[in-house]
Design a protein that fits this description.
binds zinc ion, alpha/beta
Length: about 280
């Protein structure tokens, strides 16, 4: 997934401050939340990339989020799906990192390793060890670089990392085809010795026509659609919850419990802002 539909120049600190204030108010307004049910898949992209992009978290914020996650059940994606298959609705959290940025290895991995936390990297395999620049990307700031195969090998060898398929070239939805799925899977298998069993759509955009091809290749496919996953959730339409740079601590906490009310309200504000020509 990527929210890189946004265009424009690096945003001002005041715009970031405004967004953080809005989210803070939203999470206070819905503090009394019922406990979450089912699997919550969090979406991360970059950590400590030193840009102002909403998808690039400061390393210290990411560390604080991992501290908060100590009170939650963080499990590998396959374990979360095993639970759902068994009809188990107890809350679980799955950490997912889209694209395969090098700063995830540099900044997130040491923190994950010391806490023994499992995670999934959905890899766009054409960008390994290369600048992460693809058509339609409007990420702000200096582009990141993809992890190297050696770095990915280290993650896989730890037993903590599941490598998922995110297409080979991070193609737009209209260009998504079986060749892109297989190019990624074959490249990953050649270099890492594992075949991806999970997929996430580039841009988070679900393509219904692809579902038979996905179902025949993968155990799961996830989208950018906001929500948690229950036993009855279609495994080819898993929902996820984005984590953004300007999320205040209490807003992150609200992603883990309750009905995702603040998240939904904020997504609505972003959509309205876009219609009014403001930057999300
Ligand atoms: Zn992506």
């Amino acid at each position: 997934m990527s929210e890189r539909g946004r265009g424009g120049t690096p945003e001002s600190p005041s715009a970031q401050g405004y967004r953080a204030r809005v989210k803070s108010l939203l999470s206070v307004a819905t503090r009394r939340q019922p406990e979450a049910q089912g699997a919550t898949l969090l979406i991360y992209h970059r950590v400590g990339g030193r840009t102002t992009d909403e998808l690039d978290l400061a390393t210290e914020d990411f560390a604080r989020q991992l501290d908060l996650l100590e009170a939650h059940d963080v499990v590998p994606l396959d374990d979360a799906l095993d639970r759902l298959d068994a009809g188990d609705t107890r809350p679980s959290v799955v950490l997912t990192f889209d694209d395969g940025f090098e700063d995830v290895h540099r900044n997130a991995w040491p923190l994950l390793r010391e806490r023994n936390l499992p995670f999934t990297v959905y890899l766009a395999s054409a960008f390994v060890d290369r600048p992460m620049v693809w058509e339609g990307s409007t990420a702000t700031g200096r582009p990141g670089t993809g992890m190297s195969w050696a770095q990915l090998q280290e993650l896989v060898a730890s037993g903590l990392c599941t490598v998922g398929n995110h297409t080979h070239r991070h193609v737009r939805p209209e260009l998504l085809g079986e060749a892109e799925l297989d190019a990624c899977t074959d490249t990953v298998e050649r270099h890492l010795g594992v075949r991806p069993r999970h997929f996430t759509y580039p841009w988070g955009v679900r393509v219904a026509a692809m579902e038979p091809a996905l179902r025949s290749r993968f155990r799961s496919a996830s989208t950018g659609e906001l929500g948690r996953n229950l036993p009855q959730t279609d495994r080819m339409r898993l929902r996820r919850v984005p984590v953004r740079r300007t999320d205040p601590g209490e807003f992150f906490a609200a992603k883990l419990t309750g009905s995702l009310g603040p998240e939904r309200a904020y997504a609505g504000i972003v959509r309205t802002g876009k219609r009014l020509g403001l930057r999300g």
